[in-house]
Amino acid sequence: DEEYKALESFLGVCSGSGTGCIDAIGWRGTDQGTQLKSGGSSGFNFLLAGYNNMVGSFVNQDISGLLWSTSENYGAYTWARFFYSSKAGVNRYFYDKKYGYSVRCLRSPTPCGGESSVSYEGQNYNLVEIGDQCWIADNLNVGDMIDSSVDPSSSSVEKWCYDNNSTSCTSQGGLYTWAEAMQLDPSCNNGSCAGSINVNHQGICPAGYHIPTDVEIKTLEMSLGMTQEQANLVGVRGTDEGTQLKIGGTSGFGFRLAGYYGDSFYNSGSYGYMWSASEIINTNKAWSRTLSALTSVDHSSGSKAFGYFVRCLKTISTPNNPSAPSSPIIISLVASSSTVQINWTGVSGAIYYAVSSTIPGQEIIAPVSQTNYTFSDLSPGTSYSFQVQATDDYSQSSNFSSVSSTATLLPDPPAAPSSISNTPSSSSIIINWDAVFGADYYTIFVGLPNQSQTVIIGTNTDSQPQPISRNWDYSTAEFLYLKSELGSLNGNISSLAFYKASGNTGVTIEDVTIYLKHTTATILSSGSISMTGYIQVYSGAFPNTASSGWSSVNFNTPFAYDGTSNLQILVVKGYQAKVGTPPSYRFTSTGANRASNYKSKYYQSDTPWSVSSDSTATVNRSNIQLGYYTGDIFGSIIFTTTTLDTSYNFTGLSPNTMYHFQMSATDAYSQTSVSSTIYSATTLP
């Protein structure tokens, strides 16, 4: 219907919807029907061939004739044109689609309108049709050559020629700054000139042609096979579109890898650069394309002050400048301890988004296909604010979105210090521990034990060179004590003693490790020993300085007894060669197998005890004294300190005295770990 109107308007029908004018319904015009009928001056030569009236009858031949359009009206009807022998005008009306009317065809215009070249400024440029676009098929070479030491002015069109050689412009085209190509003030190379950019911006192109926008170059690329998703990406993308666009490529675009001008001339023969009309708002950059030896196309931005080549696109229509895009809406901010991901709504007409933040130096440009961005390497526990702005193909920008703020999370608190060891003397204890990731400093609490209580199990005076034996190279002993035997014991077991009956006091006992665990077992069996559930409470030497009596060690780590279970104790002595008159310790027969032992004689030193070694169950169980504390294991805190190191020497301590140590780690955000296990150490006599 609109194309019929264009024809009628051309023949003189008045514009508008007034009586007899182009948009009216019914008879319109003056003599345009006469001009269009057979013998009329237009040459349209429409024959009044009648029509079919839906019921099989053919009527009004030589009296009237009707022409269908493709434009529907009210669904079941279509606009048509009605000519009558006695009428000079043209009737515009809509009719039932079941009528049989005549048809005329209109040739669809080609992008280049049948033209194969255009003459401009004394030069002839070939044209090439690619998809629905008509391109000048070579780089523009217009304007006056200036030396590369001189910046283009606004007085006339000026260009650089590669290597300051005019023949380079003749063979390859001129190199233009963005402002020069757009014919804008040179100051536009240093910032935004969005208000000066028009739809179909002519710039230095011939009349009827314009500098292509970023979207129009994407349309070119998609005509050659690039997907919309690929075209929207920034950077190198696509498959073989670059090959098609270069000299010798199948598209006929014939783009040359002729370099560019920055502070010098670069990359001739390796790269070629082409401006778009689309600037990146609030920057000194504009979108461009780079072709190279790669088969794909680089969608990037270049400094507007650089000299790139210019291609022109034929202007098919010149619409009014569209409205600026609407503002994006920030949907969410997702924070971790070092990142924030910002998510926003997509905006119709946008070709990219600018993300502004309070992060120093962080102004991000995101392609239109991207509606989120993750800022990284941020400081934990810090508040940041963000806004997003959309820009369209004509460098029109929306208002920034409302400010959205969030704080990065704090990292997890540090772990408690572990692997704590000690080196005692008679007046000091040096403690060492493994460094804790993220710790800024360590706090150490030192205290004296709570007042100790003891329980003794076994009263017999018989003795044997067990459980800690120097009568063999290796020894291991395991004991089981029933809850009923432990009596009132309830709390932290902090020491263990065996009763020495006799033996040489000059014999040292070293490399002793003691383990405790809760159990429901009531007897022990011969065979291997299971380590499941055992907790190491002591590692070091075992005393042998008294001729007889209780020989005691204070645990490095007190054992938290649950007050209801039976208790198993495992004592393992590492290698020491057999000696004469070793210490013997009192034992009591239990009547049930609640002890087992493993030993290897001195001539079997290559077979130390392991969990798979066979131990022999026995009723002879060593008498034992267990020391324990109820309530807080610290009787009193005598010293608190902080340190940046992983070692500390506590001095001025009393000889032969047990001290407890507990530690925590604190990070740079004042987050403190849970307290470590309580460790114990005893100064030497």
From TrEMBL:
It comes from the Bacteria. Residues 324-412, 589-685 form the Fibronectin type-III domain. SMART domains: FN3. This is Fibronectin type-III domain-containing protein. It comes from Candidatus Magasanikbacteria bacterium CG10_big_fil_rev_8_21_14_0_10_36_16.
